[in-house]
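Single-chain item
Fold in token form
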Amino acid sequence: MTMAQPTVLLVEDEPAQRAVLAYNLEAEGFDVTQADNGEDAMMLVDEAAPDIIILDWMMPKLSGIEVCRRLKLSPVTRSIPIIMLSARAEEVDRIRGLETGADDYVIKPYSVLELMARARAQLRRVRPSTAGVVLEHGDIRLDTESHRVYRADKVLKLGPTEFKLLVTLMERPGRVFSRDQLLDLVWGRDIYVDTRTVDVHVGRLRKSLMLFGGDDPVRTVRGAGYALG
């Protein structure tokens, strides 16, 4: 069973530089979406929030610093890590970038290998399952390497879809996911599945999690979706 690829939005107006970065990100296992200006970047985030954004400062239509400011002001997108790319090497510019909300600031020209390492570090922070770690929430423990799930030390048997659904919820406890977001993250963007399918699999996941007793850890948020805890 394969886990969904981590997604990155690459926003860079220089075509050659964007092509190099996209190639290396795909080689690192990222599913890459690209934009060459700030306005398109905002639309793409609105359509499907990525796991991480690599964002150039100087761009047409809407600057990277303004894109970063808007995304970090919104409660829906503020948790997405942003790596800012800039030719501005002055300390005041670095501070401005970080104060706007950027999670990391990389000065041009940069080492592509270093940028990939920084992207992986940010990804491990928001999607720990990519590092092969054990996720825990209350008395639920999920081992992403052995694909085993325990509740109160009892082994639970989950189907592949329920496992991926639980990983998604456990990576971001407390966050409310809409049905469409869960379809993208668990089933994939290119697969058409009715949103009611999400309800069916959430029901199966709940049944498995409560097989040996305990409270229902999956919260239904009326009109919004589902969250863990």
Observations:
- The domain at 130-228 is CATH 1.10.10.10 (Arc Repressor Mutant, subunit A).
